[in-house]
Amino acid sequence: MRKLIAVTLMLAFMALWVWGAGTVGTRLTGVPSWLQLVFYVVAGIGWVLPLRPLLKWMNANEVPDED
Prior knowledge:
73% of the residues lie in helices and 0% in strands. Helix 1 runs antiparallel to helix 2 and helix 1 packs antiparallel against helix 3. The protein contains 3 helices and no strands. 0% of the residues are buried. It has one domain (2-58). The protein has helices at residues 2-26, 33-45, 48-58. It is mainly alpha-helical. The two termini are 20 Å apart.
């Protein structure tokens, strides 16, 4: 159940991240190319940091049930 919850949250987060990056990226047409490059590198890699705790929680060992 833990992995199902985590995957659902990850998909929702990624959809918002892509929407946000696309929205901000379309507004960067007038800025220098180096700043666009920095933005797209951060947008492409930066999603990992907010999801790191969720990934750790998803892959944590579950305590076995006792009878």
